[in-house]
Amino acid sequence: MSLTRRTFLRGTAVAGAACAVAGLAEAEERKEKTLPPKAVGLLFDSTLCVGCKACVSACREANNLHPEFNNGNNLWDAPLDLSANSLTVIKAYSEGSAKNKDQEEDGFAFVKKSCLHCVDPSCVSVCPVSAMTKDPVTGIVSYNPNNCIGCRYCVAACPFGVPRFEYNKTIARLRKCEMCKQRQVAGKIPACAEVCPTGATLFGSESALRAEAERRHKLTVGERTFFPRKTVDSTDTYEKRAPRYNAQTYGLKEVGGTQVCYLAGVPFAKLGLPSLPEKSFVSTSERIQHTLYKGMMAPALLFGSLLFAVRRNAKADEKEDE
Amino acid sequence: MRDGVEQMIQQLNGEMPAGTERELGLSRRVFLQFCAGMAATLGLPAGAEAAIARSIVAKRRPSVIWLHLSECTGCTESMLISEHPAIDKLILELVSLDYHETLFAGAGKQAEAARKASMAANKGKYLLVVEGAVSTKDGGIYCKIGGRTATELLNECAKDAAAVIALGSCASWGGMPSAQPNPTGCTGVSEVWKGPVVNIPGCPPNPYNFLSTVVHYITFGRFPDLDNQGRPKFAYSRLIHENCERRPHFDNGRFAEEFGDFGHRSGWCLYRLGCKGPETYANCPAVLFGDAGGGCWPVGTGHPCIGCTERGIGFEKPIHSLAELKFVTSPAFYPHIVEEQGKGVSVAAAAVLAGGVGIAIGAAAAMAKNLGKGSKPENKPAPKSEDSPDGEE
Amino acid sequence: MSPKPVGGPYITGTTILAGLMVAIMAMLVLVRFFFGLGIVTNLNDGYSWGLWLAYDVVAGTAIGCGGYAIALVVYVLNKGHYHPLVRPAILASMFGYAIGGTSVLIDISRWWNFWHILWPTYFNLNSVMIEVALCISIYTTVLMLEFAPVVVEKVAGWTRQRGGNLHALTSTVEKVLDKTIFVLIALGMTLPTMHQSSLGTMLIPFGYFINPLWQTPLLPALYLLTALSIGYAIVMFEATLVSDRFSRPSEARILGLLSRYMTAVVALFLVIRFGDILYRGKLTYIFTSHGLSYAFLAEYLLSITGVILLLSERRRMAPRFQFIAALCILSGCVLYRIDSYLVAYHRAGWRYFPSAPEILITFGMIAVEVLGYILIVRHFPVLYSAERVNAQAPASE
What we know:
The complex is a heterotrimer. Chain B is an alpha/beta fold.
């Protein structure tokens, strides 16, 4: 083989350098994002949810969305999943005889799907044109159609599959839950929390919601306690026996934390809430990019050396040609 | 129903003994309408109304002993104020009410003597109706009649009875007097008397459920089918929530939040106000209450159901605390956690792709075969693989 | 001896078929713009990126890396004898990138906002995609400028006969291009290094949606290596194809020498890929990923076969083995890119397979490349004569 060790090394120098930098990228620390100062959120307690879908109806009304027919007849609004037209849906887990609420075997449970308003949202990180933004104060993740080019990177990258696109429209846009920010501006709370009869969906400041989740975890099963409705600090409460909860609250740590947290009696994975690492995926991609492109130093260096090489070698070529 | 009644009136014209009208104090038409109504409440098949009419008229009126224990007499009251034609008369004429502390003309020792006489005369044949809970604490000193405790009275009367009916929630399992902390140790009839007991719970129970049960007994000599709590199935097998007139509001998530708010005034679902319909079995939405016309039952008037017919609900759960949903209806309308979505491979797509890739592989193979075979092939018009997914240029 | 137009008829069976494919594509593209993506594609919320992105853009731009790969050898490693391969490679690269860019325009739903990716006030510098989009846009322009001398040469030949001011202008342009082309060449190697690696980084936010055999922090390095592998493979494939189809003498000697760079890069890719899987402890996924196990093995074995075939000196110099090995590596690495974007991407409950019109549009895009390449090579001075190509090749390096 005429390929010498020397040529081999030289031939792969560029690739090798890139590998090395990408590998080193792990070392460079990107600061983990933290909750915004006045973060608001929702706490969804699956054990309190009775599946009445009041939230689904209210969401439709608050966001001017039309009913979705999926069950063969066109009589009942029955969205199958989140879509560009359904920003929240109630889904049911059922197993075996499905007789016992919040039980994994022979049981059933409900879960409310909507945007989790991540602390370190993938959609915001991946959007090339800043159409997805996270409010620096409230932490609400929202979408600006005026910026959007419709690349749907956010749709593909959201670890919870929240942003949804309109594929069948000429003038298409994306839709996702924006925690009824238009209502919040008017001093109201998100429509889903407003109408929830059991307080399964609770609105409030993220810190208060997390404290409430903590309180519920500390209750002994069967103990009589009060559950607030609408907002976490509401005086509208009712008495109920404490249910059995999973050991964890979902959303405290998943992909850097979410502002919509979940409590449930069946494993979260069964409710379509995957187990995720504590570090967000985009923190890795951002770390790599910001290492490689820090001040455009590396590309400038590469360009400079290539410029030098080309100038030298092209001249040599010319001479050779003559 | 009306046609059936007309037909039946024709049919029974000859059978009805002369003097029935006078005896019952109501017209033949009204009487037969009552019988048809009973049959309908019981869910009996066509023709049963005739049997009921015949038995009411022909059979000897059974003797009834009616005990009042720890209670408020609401059951009797609701029975008496029923607007249905001549219910009061029927209860008096239908049966031979030999002992009833509220309705009895006599009092004291005289009344007790009548009870004993009747019991002796109708040994093994009389019906025992118990209204009110049995107070058991401290030797039963909190409820005594004629110097006898409730337990003694019950056991004495039940011993020779043909059947025992526990009327009202108190008699059925303790009801209101047994509410926490239950200072007098009140409990249901079936806890004290171990023989068979028919429970007609409710606070008060619907008079028709009681009357229908009695009429069934008179007509067929046995009680209607009972559920595992001793309640007649015809009246207590339906979940209120499933038959409620306000159900559409629940299904659409429209809930009254406070008494008198917009939702409450608009007749929205009372679940959020603590309605126990979702965990209470009774026929209230179907037969209504108090004969005051349509919509007249607790939920119809705008008050959440308190679950009075359901042990462990009524008088145990706070009236305005949220009900547990017994079961969730229309599960078909809930999407699964993971829904199968998106389009898979179609025949057309597979064909196009396979065609393109096939041509590309074929052409490449053909070319590879010829390559390096000394002489170059001429520029022949053999098709090149334009649509190779490998992207030939 | 400078490159000359190949000449010959423009209308042949091949060009007619390619033209037909392009016409079908044009119609389908019109339908897509009038009625939205849903009517033409099977794209959905589970697979919002489909065939167009995975093949036309991600694999297509790698196929357009021939120019990049050759330029590295010629200008960085200073192997001037590969210079004759530069022009055809640049032409193919130009098509590869133009097609990629066009596909993006068809694929993005709100295409009227496309200019936002070039307008700094909209930039989100955290997004990997802004780097890729900007970089590809600039690089496509650079490729066109790099190819400009070919066009100018043709025009100059025409104006020379006319003389006068027109010729003065073209010769000025020619001179300016000649003096500045080295900047373009350097840019033309910097930019693909940036965006081809970033195409890999773009997958990292997908996290657990992508099978661990493909999802790794080393994606940018692996993507850069496949870009180079595909680049060399496409140059070899294309040169063999062109000599065969245009009945020109074989360029086997120079390609045989070039193939060593290809096998080195592919080998490096395969080693890093396997080592990374091993290091992350995901080896078992090779056997437990059901269909994906086969996909992994297929792409891995194809690439390895390509490398092994060219290990012997005899086969390395034989056009047939060059062609087969280049095809193996080409399909292996293209599969790697399609797999990582599409096949290894899984969302619970979602299915996707491109629709027939979607596939036809992709075929149409390939037809544009084939048609454009044939017409330009016949009309413009792109290809050197094989005698010249082989004459420059040293017996060994």
